[in-house]
Design a protein that fits this description.
The protein is of the alpha+beta class and about 110 residues long. The protein has helices at about 5-15, 15-25, 35-40, 45-60, 75-90, 95-105, and strands at about 35, 60-65, 70-75. The chain has a three-stranded antiparallel beta sheet. The two termini are about 20 Å apart.
């Protein structure tokens, strides 16, 4: 990932509704959630939430798949991984011992 792809992802997550929706999708990986469940959790109208979902999808953070009659939304874990690595790439000027607490916390998830 580079700045050109990181900026849209960060901008997409810089809104409370989108951040909450993305975190909810990450929590429900790998099954994902139906669009209806996400709308219900957001307490927004379908059309308002769809706008937020489109921003997340355009940034590459969310992908949709059809299962029967439902559209299932899933967090794109590869994009999340890339974003996290981009942010921490030059962590601590190469001093791994300073990054160990961060890595340990991420590993416990």
């Amino acid at each position: 990932m580079n700045s050109d792809s990181a900026l849209p992802a960060l901008a997409a997550l810089a809104h409370p509704t989108r951040l909450d929706a993305f975190r909810l999708l990450v929590k429900h990986e790998p099954e994902g959630l139906s669009t209806g469940d996400l709308v219900e959790a957001s307490r927004l109208s379908q059309s308002t939430f769809s706008t937020h979902l489109a921003v997340l999808a355009k940034a590459g953070l969310v992908k949709s798949e059809k299962r029967g009659r439902q559209i299932i939304q899933r967090a794109d874990i590869d994009t999340l991984r890339g974003l996290m690595l981009f942010l921490a790439k030059d962590c601590c000027q190469g001093r791994a011992e300073l990054c160990e607490p961060l890595l340990a916390e991420l590993a416990c998830c």
